[in-house]
Specification:
The complex is a heterotrimer.
Chain A (H helix, E strand, L loop, with lengths): L1 H34 L5 E3 L3 E3 L3 E3 L4 E3 L4 E7 L4 E3 L5 E11 L7 E3 L5 E9 L4 E4 L5 E8 L13 E4 L5 E3 L2 E3 L3 E6 L5 E3 L2 E3 L3 E6 L5 E3 L2 E3 L3 E9 L2 E3 L2 E3 L8 E9 L2 E3 L2 E3 L3 E6 L5 E3 L2 E3 L3 E6 L5 E3 L2 E3 L3 E6 L5 E3 L2 E2 L17 E3 L2 H8 L10 H9 L8 E3 L19 H23 L2
Chain B lengths: L1 H46 L29 E5 L4 E4 L2 H11 L4 E7 L6 E3 L4 E4 L11 E4 L2 H11 L3 E3 L1 H6 L7 H10 L3 H10 L4
Antiparallel strand pairs in B: 1-2, 1-3, 3-4, 5-6, 5-7
Chain C lengths: L1 H14 L2 H24 L7 H31 L2 H5 L6 H33 L6 H28 L3 H17 L1 H9 L5 H14 L1 H12 L11 H8 L1 H31 L4
The chains are: A alpha/beta, B alpha+beta, C mainly alpha.
């Protein structure tokens, strides 16, 4: 008996101490940070923290799977003003005050944020004039129930240069990753879904985007007012539901390279508008409602792209001075006399529908109406206003084979039933007297 | 034969009438709704008997020039074409650029909104303020005021900016302030408070 | 009960008519070809290039078949003197038309079921993959198209004096509602004084043209409504809502009823002025 009660008492005291310790921690994390030396590693005990903190010196703050910052405040849950600090392995559930402060605000440089999970209706992470930071393995989830225009950005970069964002998973926000007035940022291996725009670049230079994915957003990637962007091997799919949906937008873009991207099942695959001196090559543009749209864009090189099985392959307006060569158009019935793999017949991107749709948007209801084909063949647009591929490829340069070969018995059952039903009906009909 | 033709014609006319009636009921209620929303902003236009009326901004509106969603804020502008079709822009810069590119043959009336009240008015009657640090959706840095005094008041409060008239807009060099980036970095590189202020002001939606 | 008698008679006549079987063979070959084509390319759900092409091919062929079959069936009654005989019984033209419509509807549905059945079996035997929803979608699309065009065919039949007029009428309706529809809409509606009238007018005219109405609604249900742009946002929301499908079906039923009533009324008038 005494033995058992001893254990009981010990447990009780231990439990009490644990709670007390935890309480003390929750209240004084800021103090611990304040007391820490530069370069010190603070291992956060498991638990829930409710006070916002500020990291203003290069320390390492390491949590665990059970460290949660549950903060409701006018200040960000975590503010990093330091250069060279590390934040690792924490979860943040943040509710901002009136003025949309971000869950995590970074104002310093060369910080590392790793394995951080954020749930907030406000901005996830704001990099404000912060440079050379590394954000890795970040997960940001917005509020699914909020309408798009009330949501905020996942990761917002403002005048922030040379940062790297990788392996981020962002969903249900406004723009997944948004950067404005930035230079030389690298975004790679990120996934944005169910948001407004996946990746949104405004007035940036030399951004590098690769291996990013963007699914089921209003638009996949919006590249606007930028120079020397390099976007490659990104996957932009199923951005099609909204009447504004796009896979990739290039607006007011210069000297950029867009290559080896997979752009499929979007409302419009690639929309190029007022863009100059860009190279768009080796992109796999398939199964979009409209593959390529060109508006007032000049001096771009468009080559070796595959436009396959888009409902409407391409549409162009005022886009004559582009170098369009050697793309694959699956609806082109080419003729290769010389045997160089290129068709000797040119491919003309349909100029009529887009002209009509821009002037009278109401006529978009006639999109793919059976008679449109008839109408198209009747219309003549001056050659010099068309986007023409002078030597389309005979074979798809990118062997895209998107085949789900699900063999299903349902079809067999349904069709047998239909067949039998029709036979019986015919039999009864004939037999009738 | 004659009877038949008339019969046929009247039947088709009847069907058409029935359907248009059904539909116009819908569109009538729609119109009622939109005028409800627009009423506050349209009282002014009624006074001056404008031939063209601005449409309210909808969620689905996309800038005619830059393909971005048009937020329903003071930066939104629109041109009502001579055929009463309304095209919208998210920034006054986009609108002026469009007018330069397309000419004004088809322009019925161009509308901008007052920076403070968001009331629609004819662009020709406005006063404008430009400063590269004024944040507008496409960073053209130009905002519109119905009353010239309000424009001056804004400059006073903001501390900087220049007044532009309607004709200045045509000659204004519309550039999105990419160059401003470097400049601002040098000037305010380490002044965080200033940036936060900027950032709040700057509302893309 | 009069209607039932007409219906049974129609079935009997229909299934003993060689025309029915020519159409059955034609449509089976056609369906087999398009479904095999679709299954060889991909089995992705939703609106794709292939779905669009196949919808258009169906839109070209099926309404024409239906219009010919339906209008001929009506004019045949007149020309062969069957109606003269039937009119001696206490039979109203309304029950006559509805009975005939039901009979031909069953025949057309049987043709479609047969074609889809045999094509589906071929696909299954051939080891081709096909999305079940796409299959059912094309089936429903075809049936709805056939049933609405059948009522128009009756209207043409009622207005025509003989097979030749019916043939011209059928081809005219097919040509206007399918082939030159966009051209017609664009050239007519651009003449409207205000752009604000274009979209509502086009919407009403689209609802009146069953081919366009069914096509547009189908595309919306397949998730391609966004291709129509912001002007039709409300329509898309409606089409995708739970009630959308029900209201759509009800509208088609109303369409069929109204057209049939008008047809029978015209038929009656024609009967009275029998001499002309």
């Amino acid at each position: 008996m005494p033995k058992r009660s001893l254990i009981f008492i010990t447990l009780f005291i231990a439990g009490f101490l644990f709670i007390a310790f935890d309480e003390a921690n929750a209240q004084s994390l800021q103090e611990i940070i304040d007391r820490a030396e530069k370069g010190e590693t603070i291992q956060l005990p498991d638990g829930t923290y409710e006070e916002p903190i500020v990291i203003d010196k290069p320390i390492q703050l390491v949590g665990s799977a059970d460290v949660v910052f549950k903060v409701k405040s006018d200040r960000p849950a975590i503010t990093i003003k330091a250069n060279g600090a590390t934040l690792e392995q924490i979860a943040v559930e943040y509710e901002s005050g009136a003025n949309d402060t971000p869950a995590i605000l970074i104002q310093g440089s060369q910080n590392v944020i790793r394995s951080v999970t954020i749930e907030t209706a406000s901005v996830g992470i704001l990099l404000d004039d912060a440079h050379e930071n590394l954000l890795s393995d970040i997960s940001i989830t917005g509020d699914e129930n909020l309408p798009i225009r009330e949501r905020r950005r996942g990761i917002d970069l403002w005048k922030a240069d040379r940062n790297t964002i990788e392996h981020a998973k962002i969903s249900h926000v406004e723009d997944g990753i948004y950067e404005e007035f930035c230079e030389e940022n690298v975004f790679r291996n990120n996934i944005v879904t169910h948001s407004r725009y996946g990746y949104h670049l405004m007035f940036t230079e030399r951004t590098e985007l690769y291996h990013n994915e963007s699914y089921e957003n209003i638009s996949g990637m919006m590249i606007m007012g930028t120079k020397e962007t390099h976007a490659y091997e990104n996957t932009l799919k199923f951005n099609q539901e909204d009447v504004q949906s796009l896979g990739l937008l290039l607006y007011d873009v210069y000297d950029s390279r867009i290559e080896h991207n997979t752009i499929a099942h979007n409302r419009i695959g690639i929309l190029v508008e007022e863009a100059y001196d860009n190279e768009i090559s080796y992109n796999d543009v398939t199964n979009n409602f409209i593959g390529l749209q060109f508006k007032r864009a000049e001096n771009n090189v468009i080559t070796h792209n595959a436009f396959d099985a888009n409902v409407s392959q391409g549409q162009a307006e005022d886009s004559m001075m582009n170098e369009t060569n050697a793309n694959y158009w699956s609806d082109h019935h080419g003729l290769d006399v010389t045997g160089d793999g290129m068709s000797d017949l040119s491919y003309h991107v349909d100029p009529f529908y887009m002209h009509l749709a821009n002037k009278y948007p109401a006529f978009r209801l006639l999109f793919q109406s059976p008679g449109m084909i008839f109408l198209d063949s009747m219309m003549h647009t001056p050659k010099e206003e068309q986007l023409v591929d002078a030597s389309p490829l005979m074979e798809n340069p990118l062997s895209s084979s998107e085949t789900f070969n699900e063999h299903n018995t349902a079809i067999a059952i349904i069709s047998t039933t239909l067949f039998l039903m029709s036979i019986i009906t015919i039999y009864m009909g004939v037999r009738q007297t | 034969m004659k009877h038949k033709k008339w019969l046929l014609f009247s039947i088709f006319a009847a069907i058409l009438l029935v359907f248009t009636a059904c539909n116009s009921e819908d569109s009538a209620t729609d119109e009622a709704k939109t005028t409800d929303e627009g009423e506050a902003t349209e009282t002014e236009t009624a006074e001056t008997e404008l031939a063209y009326e601005p449409e309210p901004i909808k969620d689905t509106d996309v800038c005619e020039l830059c393909a971005m969603a048009v937020p329903d804020n003071q930066h939104a502008t629109q041109i009502v074409l001579t055929n009463e079709r309304s095209i919208k822009f998210d920034d006054i810069g986009c609108m002026i650029k469009w007018m330069k590119e397309n000419g004004d043959e088809e322009v019925g009336m161009a509308f901008v909104r007052d920076y403070n009240t968001e009331e629609w008015f004819d662009v020709n009657e406005g006063t404008f303020v430009y400063h590269e640090e004024i944040m507008t959706p496409m960073a053209y840095g130009v905002i519109s005021f119905k009353d010239a005094n309000d424009a001056e008041a804004f400059i006073e409060e903001f501390g900087k900016g220049e007044i532009l008239t309607r004709s200045d807009l045509d000659n204004h060099e519309w550039k999105m302030n990419k160059e401003m980036m470097e400049k601002m970095k040098e000037e305010h590189g380490h002044d965080h408070d200033d940036h936060e202020h900027d950032h709040d002001d700057h509302d893309h939606e | 009960m009069q209607m039932l008698t007409v219906f049974q008679r129609e079935l009997k006549l229909g299934f003993r008519n060689s025309w029915t079987y020519s159409f059955l063979i034609l449509f089976s070959i056609f369906t087999g070809a398009i479904l095999l084509l679709h299954s060889s390319v991909s089995s992705i759900e939703g609106y794709t290039n292939m779905t669009g092409t196949l919808m258009n091919m169906t839109l070209y062929l099926l309404p024409l078949i239906t219009l010919l079959l339906g209008s001929f069936s009506i004019t045949a009654e007149k020309e062969d003197g069957h109606w003269g005989l039937l009119a001696t019984y206490p039979l109203s033209s309304v029950s006559f038309f509805f009975g005939k419509w039901l009979g031909l509807a069953i025949i057309l549905t049987t043709i479609i079921f047969f074609s889809f059945g045999i094509s589906g079996i071929l696909i299954s035997i051939g080891g081709q993959a096909m999305n079940t929803e796409t299959f059912i979608f094309f089936l429903a699309f075809s049936v709805l198209l056939a049933l609405t065009y059948l009522s128009i065919a009756f209207l043409i039949g009622a207005l025509s004096k003989n097979r030749w007029q019916a043939l011209i009428g059928a081809i005219a309706v097919w040509f206007i509602t399918i082939v030159i529809w966009p051209l017609l809409m664009i050239s007519l509606l651009t003449q409207l004084p205000s752009y604000k009238l274009v979209q509502p007018t086009l919407q009403v005219l689209t609802i009146l043209n069953p081919a366009e109405f069914i096509r547009v609604f189908s595309m919306m249900r397949l998730g391609a409504g966004s291709a129509f742009g912001a002007d039709y946002d409300a329509l898309i929301t409606w089409a995708l809502s739970n009630n959308g499908l029900i209201i759509f079906i009800i509208m088609l039923i109303i369409y069929v009823f109204v057209t049939l009533f008008i047809s029978s009324w015209i038929w009656n008038r024609g009967d009275k002025y029998g001499a002309d």
